[in-house]
Amino acid sequence: VPFRFELLGNALIMGGSKGAVQIKRFTVDGIAGWFGWLGFHLFRLTGFRDRVVTALDWAIGHVYDPDTSLVGSE
Questions:
Q1: Cβ neighbours of residue 26 under 8 Å, at least 6 residues apart?
Q2: CA distance 30 to 18
Q3: What is the pLDDT of residues 33-72, one digit of tens each?
Q4: DSSP symbols for 23-74
Q5: Cβ atoms of 11 and 19 closer than 8 Å
Q6: Does the global pTM surpass 0.85?
Q7: What are phi and psi of 45, to 5 degrees?
Q8: To the nearest 10°, the Cα dihedral for 23, 24, 30, 35?
Q9: How many CB atoms lie within 10 A of CB 38?
């Protein structure tokens, strides 16, 4: 089967709870775009455990200093 690339859309995060998601002609920005970016990337992870650990790490990193949110470092 030959490789076929299919663009799912575009997503970006700008920091400060701002982002943008574009799927075909549908675009969302601001905090809704930020949540869209988070959801898109969580959806693309394989395994329930990976999704939960990543979501918790992001939540902790959003509340506290990013250096304190590193799970399993050192």
A1: none
A2: 5
A3: 988 888 888 988 999 999 999 999 888 887 876 565 455 6
A4: ETTEEEEEHHHHHHHHHHHHHHS-SHHHHHHHHHHHHHHHHS-GGGG-TT--
A5: yes
A6: no
A7: -75, 145
A8: -10
A9: 19
